[in-house]
Known about the structure:
Layout: H1 2-7, E1 22-25, E2 28-32, E3 37-38, H2 56-68, E4 73-75, H3 84-89, E5 97-100, H4 114-128, E6 133-138, H5 147-159, E7 163-170, H6 175-187, H7 215-224
Parallel strand pairs: 3-4, 4-5, 5-6, 6-7
Antiparallel strand pairs: 1-2
Helix pairs in contact: 4-5, 5-6
Amino acid sequence: MSNLKGFWAPVPKPSSRIARYRVLSPNAGVHVLPLQLGAMSIGDKWEQFGMGSMDKTSSFKLLDAFYDAGGNFIDTANNYQDQNSEEFIGDTRSITITATTPCAWHLTYNGNNLKSMLLSVDDSLKKLRTSYIDILYVYWWDWDASVEEVMNGLHVLVQQGKVLHLMSGVSDTPAWMVAKANQYARDHGKSPFVIYQGLALAPWNVLAGGKLLTDEEEQRRRETGEKGRMLLGPDWDAPT
């Protein structure tokens, strides 16, 4: 009887103001934090290009703080920080929902063709130290691979167990193309995108690459000499 008391206990108070989760979609029952942690700056290989950098220690500190606040949803990509991002995140993989994208600049890795997707996903699995990816985005629509090749290839990855869910994340792609791809998947018994038509959005760069700061954060940046996203220009963080 004493065990049943715990069963009927009220839901614990959230660990922070953001620790309130929602089901990813009607076709994906995993519970995620609505706020994703973008991981483009996790890693230390892009500082010379003006994209900021975080070494392993500071990256783990950020990931730990995100997790302690209730965060469990991380967005990364195969090529971020010359692959450092996925490598660092791999150490926290078991406690997070990881969304990644197949992309790179090498010819055989680039684009949405089947060879590129298979190579990129296998590469991500090694760096993330896992046997599967929770959510896979299509990073962009390259207009070389057909709808059939893209959706058939994504379906193969799901059937192989390498990917659990396909996000409707064809980043920077017209809505009609996403609709066409999803309809093809439904008509041919393939894995459709799990978030689609009014259910959710995953915007990127919502803090303007670090430009939107509190007064305290601006003061800390001046004191530490942190350069931020210099790729956008020397005055990238000037008031507008």
